[in-house]
Amino acid sequence: MQNDLLPKPPLSVVPLPGSRPLSNTRHEHYCRLRSLLCPKGQALREAGMRAVKNHDAVSNATRLERRQDVRDRIAFLVRQEEEVLAEKRKRIEETLWAIHEGDIGDYFEAVKRDHTGQPERTDEGGLLTETRVRPRGC
Asked: Where are the domains of the chain?
């Protein structure tokens, strides 16, 4: 009976591995992108870490993910379903609005050439032009 009256010692709260944000903001941003299934190289570049080539970015990201604190943070963020779903939904909606608001005419151009890109000539030697529509950049 007397034990019930004694104050109980405070429970020590042990944080889950990866539950605290990383002190390096670039690493934290990288972990958040990886938890959203962003490819390693793209996540590294979007987090602000420089890599000239995609191969270098993937190599650097692989090296970064060998760190225990980074692995723990990514694993913790993946378990946060509501936040992950909300962020994915936001990214999808941004992409869909960009497509919706875009003008399809911006992706095509009219050219006055034949299929080989050369001007066509009439039987008398004059230039014959035909307007064709093709995707830009071709």
From this structure: 25-102, 105-135
List the beta strands (DSSP E) in the chain.
108-112, 120-121, 127-128, 131-135
Cβ pair 31, 70 in contact under 8 A:
yes
Tokens at 33, concatenated:
């992108």
Tens-place pLDDT, residues 8-53: 666 666 677 888 889 999 999 999 999 888 999 999 999 998 877 8
Q: For residue 131, list its beta bridge partners.
A: 112
User: How far is 71 from 56, CA to CA, in rounded Å?
Assistant: 20
Q: Is 138 helix (H, G, I), strand (E, B) or coil?
A: coil
* pLDDT tens sequence across 93-120: 998 888 888 887 777 766 566 666 666 6
Token pair for 71: 């692995």
Q: Does residue 84 contact residue 77 with C-beta atoms inside 8 Å?
A: yes
Please tell me the pTM assigned to this model: 0.54
